[in-house]
Amino acid sequence: MRVVLLMICVVFLASCSNEVCRDSVAPETVVLRVERLEQELFESKSSKEVESFLASHPDFAQFFLHSDQYPADSILANRMFGLIQNPSIDTLYQESINAFKNFDDVIRTLESGLGRLKVYYPKTPSPTVQTAVTGLYNDLFISNDHIMIGMDFFIGQNASYKPQQIPNYILSRYTTDHLAASILQFVSSQYISTSVGDEMLTEMINYGKSYYLLSQILPCTPERILIGYTEEEWRDVFENDKIIWANFVQNEWLYETDHNVKQKFLGERPNVFEIGDKCPGRIGRWLGWQIVNAYAEKTGASVTEIMAETNLNKLFTQSGYKPSGG
After folding, report:
1. pTM of this structure
2. What is the reported pLDDT for 28?
């Protein structure tokens, strides 16, 4: 599995609340090992103790803190010890602890999601989960062996200090409620056979397959959360799906090959103004998801069959997708 280290700009999780769960398979039993490293780190009384902490967690030091970029471990230890003594970082630490007070719910969602993924793909790994506060250094690192979480990125909109490099419309999805789905989308991505092609339709359906799989392994997560839409945005896209579809068809965007044009409909933007002032970003991804949903319903194909399908023109044709709202 590929390693992921990135600023999140895709999908996220919210708890089920009163929403009805979608039909899905019963999950295999998964029990994740969880290490709350922020507690151990912030209890350090000297740079020597921090150095000992780093030595005790070499993977975290290497992959999350990039220890291999320092000529000596003592230099990173001094930096981290100075960090945890900073009053501003103490504020981040306290706010992070408060934001993660329901972290057990996130873990249960991760465990059930991985358990369902194991039903489809028995070799799905069960990584160790590690949390930390590092002064907004990194948000996530995901591999077969580890899920490392920078808690201070996920405090929410009321955080005293926020990462400056993330736009507000993306930052609104940086909460613990959104965390499990973001992680599971990357974990599950290794099981999706994507097609290579220049046309926008190919990329739309590749994204659609990803969201479809995520919806199957997280059946109690509202679907609007999987793509990161607000309740209003989710309602609007379905009420206006005929207008959205008409724009794609009439402007021949499905077969667009220009990267800059495709990014207007697939990339991160607060709105897709080419369709309407209230049309949310990533609308092409949402539309690809609806096509995959239609294909699953029309053909009865299994989850694994859909993930393995690489003839996306066939998938599109057999989906018979037609908008049903507005």
Report:
1. 0.90
2. 97
